[in-house]
Amino acid sequence: MIAAHLKPPYYAVIFTALLTDNIEGYIETAERMEELAKEQEGYLGIESARNDVGITVSYWEDLNAITRWKNQVEHTEARERGRKQWYQQYQLRICKVEREYGFVKQ
Amino acid sequence: MIAAHLKPPYYAVIFTALLTDNIEGYIETAERMEELAKEQEGYLGIESARNDVGITVSYWEDLNAITRWKNQVEHTEARERGRKQWYQQYQLRICKVEREYGFVKQ
Q1: How many CB atoms are closer than 10 A to CB A14?
Q2: What pLDDT does residue B1 have?
Q3: So what's the ipTM on this one?
Q4: Sign for the pseudo-dihedral over CA of B50, B53, B54, B55
Q5: In what residue span(s) does the ABM domain sit (chains A, B) (predicted)?
Q6: What is the mean pLDDT of residues B50-55?
């Protein structure tokens, strides 16, 4: 899914990850985290794709919403399990979306 | 590949796309655009993944570098072909990266 029709300024969290060979429980947890993110105040949207590298971009109204999501208990537990088991490497970037353009084929 | 070790502030272009069924020439052009982006002044890195949706995030030193890349002739031609043939829908976001965190398994 593409998260369209958002109005800058707002925030994006770009999460890029390489997994280990031990991904038991990963898919279920990733799906649960996506459902949980959608329930958070200030959540705007999410986009996700995976090949050898996985990219998840989540969109938020402001930095406070990102901080609350970071501190959400179940999300914190999932992140800790991720560092112990699933992630070989990741990079997380917090960005202010300043402009955006959309295209839909007619 | 994960683009790590970049120092905020810098800029990210998040490009999210759904393709049509007519992707003749798409892969070759996407690879050529990635090579060409790497040659541009102010280019910092690129991350890309695809399932049903494709996400490409490119990183740039400043907004001027993004504008130059937007106006680069071969890139402009590829984008026009993309709108005519390959893209069902896309969303392009220009973002200022304010903070980042990295993790590498020891």
Answers
A1: 24
A2: 84
A3: 0.95
A4: negative
A5: 13-80
A6: 92
pLDDT in tens, B17-45: 999 999 999 999 999 999 999 999 999 99
Pick from B17, B68, B99: nearest CA to A11? B99
Contacting B with CB below 8 Å, chain A residues are 1-4, 8, 12, 14, 16-18, 20, 47-51, 53-55, 57, 83, 87-105
Please name the residue of chain A whose CA is at the shortest distance from the CA of residue B85.
A105
> Using one digit for the tens of pLDDT, what is the confidence trace for A7-43?
999 999 999 999 999 999 999 999 999 999 999 999 9
Chain A, nearest residue to B58 by Cα: A14
pLDDT above 90: residue A49: yes
Classify domain A10-97 at the CATH topology level.
Alpha-Beta Plaits (3.30.70)
Three-state secondary structure call for residue B45: strand
Query: Who's near A58: CB < 8 A, 6+ residues apart?
Result: A12, A13, A15, A37, A43, A45, A46, A69
Task: Measure the CA dihedral A95/A14/A44/A66, to 10°.
Answer: -70
Share of chain A above pLDDT 90, in %: 94
A39, amino acid identity = E
3-state SS class at A26: helix
Check: CB of residue B21 under 8 Å from CB of residue B86: no
